Amino acid sequence: MKKFSLVLSVAALLFIGLTAEQKEITTLAIGADMPGKDLELTRTDENKTTLADFKKEMGTLVIFSCNTCPFVIGSDNFEGWEKSYNDIQTVAKLNKVGSVLVNSNTAKRDKGDNLADMKKRAEDKGYLMDYVLDKRSRLADEFGAKTTPHVFLFDADDKLVYEGQINDAYKPNNKKVKEYLKDALNALGAGKKIKDSKTDAVGCGIKRK
């Protein structure tokens, strides 16, 4: 009965997060060029930046995130992917990949996802990745990002090589977690083909206006 309850809880969160509007969004295809490289983003220190500032020798990792989604911050049924962010940053750095967290929750700026909230969360949780605000969800629209979190990994030529989820740890009673993103980062860094280049984006729908 407990396992069934967990499955229902995850399914309910997915249903709430992925609205009809979100489902109509067209996400970047593998091999696509990185869009929105020059769009202005705002750091938690209020300085302006762009995606181009985060690129390293082997590529760029972009994770759409927020302060309010249970898939990010955790719930009674799932600890949340936020706890993996610093490990992901470490793996990215080892593979010479730059990384950034992007908050595109425009409709929740007065409900926990404004710049002050972002700064506090980044400090409280000790984020190693920069955390930036995407005004009016423009970057999310360019990427076709659907959820928090939603992962996009680009190579040194700014071509999309992995898109989807961080791992499948959200599945109830999952005995062996598939580390899709870390595997993709390690493959990219080693110049190898990424085995699973696309997985389903799982999380709460990005709150656009």
Secondary structure layout:
Layout: H1 2-17, H2 20-23, E1 41-43, E2 48-49, E3 59-65, H3 70-73, H4 85-94, E4 97-103, H5 115-125, E5 130-133, H6 138-143, E6 147-148, E7 150-155, E8 160-164, H7 180-190, E9 204-205
Parallel strand pairs: 4-5
Antiparallel strand pairs: 1-2, 1-5, 3-7, 6-9, 7-8
Helix pairs in contact: 4-7
Task: Explain how this protein is built.
With 209 residues, the protein is α+β, with helices and mostly antiparallel strands. It has helices spanning 2-17, 20-23, 70-73, 85-94, 115-125, 138-143, 180-190; strands spanning 41-43, 48-49, 59-65, 97-103, 130-133, 147-148, 150-155, 160-164, 204-205. Helix 4 packs parallel to helix 7 (180-190). The protein starts with a helix and ends with a strand.
